[in-house]
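Re: [ENG-882] Designed sequences occasionally contain unexpected residues at chain ends

Forwarding the minimal case from QA. Structure tokens:
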């Protein structure tokens, strides 16, 4: 799986820090990957941030705290839309697409 370096992520450091704080609060046990244009380098200022939550023990199992995380992201001061999806709910073809280029936000 081509894991990309974190510095490839098109996100200001202060926004990344806020995002990581929210992830630690609401989904501390989840592995979180960013994918899409902000991970691959094709993003522009108004691009959304696509995240996928994975259970590190068993990626096919759901991660607790997804609903609370979504609410916290909406209420946060992040200036971009953040889309969060559970890995376990994605079709295998989409999972393989994400595995082609992603940045780990939380291990």
């Amino acid at each position: 799986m081509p894991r990309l370096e974190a510095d490839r992520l098109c996100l200001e450091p202060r926004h990344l820090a806020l995002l990581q704080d929210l992830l630690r609060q609401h989904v501390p046990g989840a592995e979180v990957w960013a994918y899409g244009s902000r991970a691959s380098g094709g993003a522009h200022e108004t691009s959304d941030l696509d995240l996928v939550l994975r259970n590190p023990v068993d990626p096919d199992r759901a991660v607790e705290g997804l609903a609370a995380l979504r609410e916290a992201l909406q209420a946060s001061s992040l200036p971009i839309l953040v889309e969060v999806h559970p890995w376990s709910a994605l079709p295998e073809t989409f999972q393989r697409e994400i595995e082609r280029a992603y940045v780990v936000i939380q291990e």
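QA comment: On inspection the terminal residues look reasonable. The chain has a mean pLDDT of 91. Proposing we downgrade this to a documentation issue.
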